């Protein structure tokens, strides 16, 4: 296995620090628009890791690099706006492909908060036949959310439930960053994208959308995190899970917290969430890029961050015995642990560990397939076992049904 | 009188539309960084108005243009960051000078919310001796606030009060803009500057500062505007009034409204109020300029704006008869009126009318002086009479003392 890792940001760098401890692959080429970033990430690993420059907005640039290094797998770790060129570049080079976010959505032109327009991943699924015909695999959405949450969905269907009412991904944390008035722990570009787009819901056999930040609900997160207010957010799980797992409803709610919601609403009100460039004096810039440039780099916040982050799936329905069941399957990472063990903050570490586990299952043939597939298309047990073997166990909590 | 008007934004264009109805001057050269803007403003007036290009950040550029057109008066109508080069350019060219905002402040390095650092106008007042020696006048802060509010202070001291406790400028409106989630009616650059700087207060013979948005107070504005929550904001009146008018206290409170305050706090929290450039991809921009570029141009909002704006001074103390007195002197402009009569929205119109009145008093010799002087250094009565003659009367309201 020869991996081309596209993107040496927070998640890409954490990917290297996790992969370096494993021996299932031959080489990782770490590529970034900034060669210096790629070199830093590669240098932090071992001699199997080398650095290269790439333009992720160009499928040709990605394909040329993949061919040059005879990559068997292209691992996409850049902002979701580059999903399509990296996805197409991988296919052009005859490599398998993995990502942690899917191709972007476009709201419905007339009823954005009722009907779906172009959905998350639609552009990728449109190419599924071509991937299948080539016998190549695109494993989409294999971070933590989407990713581990989707593995949980498959596990719940296969081992815990006879009938599923709702697959409700719930994400929350008690993270705080000392010395910053406002310091998101994940890419603000992506956070704005997912939080301001119309949230999507799967219900009774179809997808529909709702208003941003709708249906607030307090969810009590485990391992000392406690209750956090969660709201509907557009997320890949809602598009992935119902394709492979029977359920009446699929939702995603994010524990953004009130302050964060207010910030996002204000950015939207002022048009600062826009990605189209505006003219400012003699230059043109995307307002959203300016917002990102003004905030601290999430990857660098680890040393001043405290708390835990939790990703998980709340499943309701009927258990294997036919009785009502309500179960939360979850994965918690303590920032203190991830900083001490890996030198990466918990949110990017938690995202990056899952594709490393998946690649190890692919190289050993435990997971295999062709086409455009989500994590719930594969057996969950070997994934969860290997994640635990990586030193990062998952948990299960029964709730009142 | 030959006027060089520097700045053809909202206020500059309104200045032209007001001045064109008067015959006290010979020529106005309308200058802007954008020649097209200058040409538009000049073309809307008559043959006495011509257009030119100028770089307001360069005193040499301003001086050269003033000399070329033999300007007797330089009228500054650009953002306050350009006050010093325009002020110095006017002096270098031997012209008198007027502005509507003063040189910028810098917070105290150690105790920004207790002590003043460099105060608003300090850089201009430092040059007062030189202006006086040249026999030239710099009439600073002669818009509406500062400007008309300062005229009110002088009027109150001369005609209404024997002893003044507080000179409290209070600014509020009931303006709304249809079709925009957020549309400030005045330059957002200036609004951020004044609202996020430490507010300054004159008290017992000295200046001190306080926290932004401090001492919220509901003030009941006249002519149907009604109660608006006002908070402390850094403003020139507090620096000007106590230099010429005896008072125990001078304050400025602005009826920003809760939504606006939250927006400003969020911009500050995210660092988007900063003026220093940040690198975004291949370009460098000032985040505050990006915020301004994302919002609608305040000068263009008039047709969709409704409501009235009120500028005024709340004076408390003892009346001429020695009895306690509490009086609000004010000036209200209805947007519907200013749009119909002048084609300019009420906030920029209300700012621009005052320097036109002042120039007319200077050319006729009713007002005269040398040095760096505020509006309260001159007799208030002829100013208020001429303002009324312009069709825009002021009002007076007695409050419970």
Automatic annotation (TrEMBL), chains A, B:
Signal peptide: none annotated. Pfam families: Sacchrp_dh_C, Sacchrp_dh_NADP. InterPro entries: NAD(P)-bd_dom_sf (IPR036291), Sacchrp_dh-like_C (IPR032095), Sacchrp_dh_NADP-bd (IPR005097). This is Saccharopine dehydrogenase C-terminal domain-containing protein. It comes from the Bacteria. Residues 3-138 form the Saccharopine dehydrogenase NADP binding domain. SUPFAM superfamilies: NAD(P)-binding Rossmann-fold domains (SSF51735). Residues 143-391 form the Saccharopine dehydrogenase-like C-terminal domain.
């Amino acid at each position: 296995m020869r991996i081309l890792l596209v993107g040496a940001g927070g998640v890409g760098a954490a990917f290297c620090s996790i992969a370096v401890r494993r021996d299932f692959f031959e080489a990782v080429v770490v590529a970034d628009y900034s060669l210096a970033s790629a070199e830093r990430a590669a240098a932090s690993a071992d001699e199997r890791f080398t650095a290269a420059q790439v333009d992720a907005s160009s499928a040709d640039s990605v394909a040329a690099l993949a061919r040059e290094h005879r990559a068997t797998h292209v691992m996409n770790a850049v902002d979701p706006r580059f999903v399509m060129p990296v996805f197409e570049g991988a296919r052009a080079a005859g490599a398998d492909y993995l990502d942690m976010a899917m191709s972007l959505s476009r709201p419905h032109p007339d009823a954005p908060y009722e009907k779906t327009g172009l959905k998350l991943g639609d552009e990728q699924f449109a190419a599924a036949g071509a991937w299948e015909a080539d016998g190549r695999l695109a494993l989409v959405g294999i971070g933590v959310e989407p990713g581990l949450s989707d593995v949980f969905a498959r596990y719940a269907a296969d081992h815990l439930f006879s009938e599923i009412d709702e697959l409700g991904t719930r994400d929350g944390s008690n993270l705080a960053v000392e010395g910053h008035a406002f310091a998101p722990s994940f890419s603000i570009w992506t956070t704005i994208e997912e939080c301001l787009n119309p949230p999507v819901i799967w219900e009774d056999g179809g997808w529909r959308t709702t208003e941003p930040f709708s249906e607030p609900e307090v969810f009590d997160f485990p391992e000392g995190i406690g209750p956090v207010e969660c709201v509907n957010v557009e997320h890949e799980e809602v598009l992935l899970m119902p394709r492979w797992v029977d359920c009446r409803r699929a939702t995603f709610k994010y524990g953004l917290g009130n302050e964060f919601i207010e910030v996002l609403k204000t950015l939207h009100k002022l048009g600062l969430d826009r990605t189209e460039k505006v003219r400012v004096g003699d230059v043109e810039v995307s307002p959203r890029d300016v917002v990102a440039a003004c905030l601290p780099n999430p990857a660098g916040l680890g040393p001043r961050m405290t708390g835990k982050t939790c990703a998980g799936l709340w499943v309701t329905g009927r258990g294997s015995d036919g009785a009502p069941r309500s179960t939360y399957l979850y994965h918690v990472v303590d920032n203190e642990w991830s900083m001490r063990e890996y030198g990466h903050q918990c949110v990017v570490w938690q995202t990056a560990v899952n594709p490393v586990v998946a690649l190890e299952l692919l190289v050993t043939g435990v997971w295999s397939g062709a086409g455009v597939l989500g994590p719930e298309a594969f057996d969950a047990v070997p994934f969860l076992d290997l994640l635990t073997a990586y030193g990062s166990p998952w948990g299960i909590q029964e709730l009142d049904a």
